[in-house]
Write a structure and sequence with these properties.
It is built from nine helices and three strands, in the order H-H-H-H-H-H-E-E-E-H-H-H. A three-stranded mixed sheet has the order 1-3-2. Strand 2 and strand 3 form a beta hairpin. Helix 4 crosses helix 6. The longest helix is centred in the C-terminal third of the chain and has 21 residues.
């Protein structure tokens, strides 16, 4: 990817996302609006232990188990939509609901905000120093059953060798934390500080999506 394309994508991260503009992935404007501002409070979120949450996801993602009709439809849209060229950073946001439906049991939609943002300095975030490395994204707990995912646009489109693949890895990684953030008790300052041991890694999710939708072909 040349420098001109990287600058264009970096600029596009700051553009409000519209269902009828940008990357032509099927989604509704209502869903996109729901990633910017909470439109409902989900009182059905049940707190679970890390082991219980892990077991539910493992069962849900068992490749030997036939997905339900809703998940099948989501996977079909992912399989087609993720091959769209040209693409923009809005693609991962527009596909959020389908990713949630297919891989997270629909737990996140309506309860998690998601956005691109330039995060220039991480030295003041949660006490991290400059030695912490690149901050690709982070998940913030926002109260009972709610969280926000932030994807840092700068490293994705300035330093990543493969921005396309990296933005999917980052979103999936943060979606794992978001599940923890909205289903664990406590007021952790950041969802990463929750007990996430045992949850399936972002690599496993990336592999699972690759196997089910062949998006890396």
């Amino acid at each position: 990817m040349d420098q001109e394309d990287r600058l264009r994508l970096l600029h596009d991260c700051q553009t409000p996302i519209r269902a009828d503009k940008g990357t032509a992935y099927p989604c509704s404007q209502r869903d996109l609006d729901g990633y910017v501002k909470f439109y409902r409070t989900n009182k059905d979120i049940a707190y679970v232990s890390p082991n219980s949450g892990t077991n539910k996801l493992i069962i849900w993602l068992d490749i030997n188990q036939k997905p339900d009709p809703e998940s099948t439809a989501a996977l079909e849209r992912l399989g087609k939509g993720l091959k769209i060229r040209p693409w923009g950073p809005d693609l991962v946001i527009k596909a959020f609901k389908d990713l949630d439906t297919a891989f997270f049991m629909g737990t996140l939609t309506g309860n998690v905000l998601v956005r691109w943002k330039k995060v220039r300095d991480i030295s003041n975030l949660w006490g991290f120093g400059s030695s912490h490395g690149v901050l690709w994204g982070y998940t913030s707990k926002m109260g009972h059953g709610q969280a926000q995912i932030t994807i840092n646009s700068t490293p994705h489109f300035k330093v990543a060798s493969d921005p396309y693949r990296e933005m999917w890895r980052t979103l999936l990684h943060e979606m794992c934390y978001a599940v923890t953030a909205i289903t664990r008790r406590g007021r952790q300052r950041r969802a990463h500080r929750s007990a996430v041991t045992g949850f399936i890694s972002d690599d496993a999710f990336t592999l699972s999506i690759g196997e089910r939708t062949n998006i890396w072909d």
